[in-house]
């Protein structure tokens, strides 16, 4: 396994040190992928750009979908929808409602995103802070809906 380090070559030689950015890059990558999975199933903006719940049409085992499958292993509903790869909204809407209301997969996904965002921001801080990365995290932030 390759360890990625970035030397600060612009610093005086006596202050030269290396920082390990792998944990930060891993956190950002995981956060972004889970966020993308959630947005694909919930965001009207994603629907405009990529189509409605395209991950279901493509049969993808996204983060909320995997949670929904594991939340009730006796119910094969989500697996059946993934196998059918529906192009029309009817089955997709039903599956999204199931993931939201029955398995609470979107709530779980939001909680994981909140935790990953906090870890990412802490890692940015540990590495000395970075206004540009903090701004990116602000832009990627997903509001957790109020629980009823």
TrEMBL record:
SUPFAM superfamilies (UniProt xref): Terpenoid synthases
Cofactor(s) named in the record: Mg(2+)
GO BP: isoprenoid biosynthetic process
InterPro entries: Isoprenoid_synthase_dom_sf, Polyprenyl_synt, Polyprenyl_synt_CS
The organism's place on the tree of life at top rank: Eukaryota
Keyword annotations from UniProtKB, A to Z: Magnesium, Metal-binding
Molecular function GO terms recorded: metal ion binding; prenyltransferase activity
A Pfam entry, by short name: polyprenyl_synt
Family: Belongs to the FPP/GGPP synthase family.
Protein name: (2E,6E)-farnesyl diphosphate synthase
């Amino acid at each position: 396994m390759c360890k990625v380090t970035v030397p600060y070559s612009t610093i005086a030689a006596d202050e030269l040190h290396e920082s390990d950015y792998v944990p930060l890059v891993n956190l950002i990558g995981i956060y972004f992928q889970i966020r993308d999975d959630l947005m694909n199933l919930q965001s009207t903006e994603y629907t405009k750009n990529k189509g409605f719940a395209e991950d279901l049409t493509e049969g993808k085992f996204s983060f909320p979908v995997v949670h929904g499958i594991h939340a009730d292993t006796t119910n094969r509903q989500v697996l059946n929808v993934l196998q059918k790869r529906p192009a029309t909204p009817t089955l997709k809407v039903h599956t999204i409602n199931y993931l939201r209301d029955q398995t609470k997969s979107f709530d779980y996904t939001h909680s994981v995103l909140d935790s990953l965002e906090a870890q990412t921001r802490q890692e940015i801080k540990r590495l000395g802070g970075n206004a540009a990365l903090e701004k990116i995290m602000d832009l990627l932030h997903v509001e957790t809906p109020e629980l009823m």
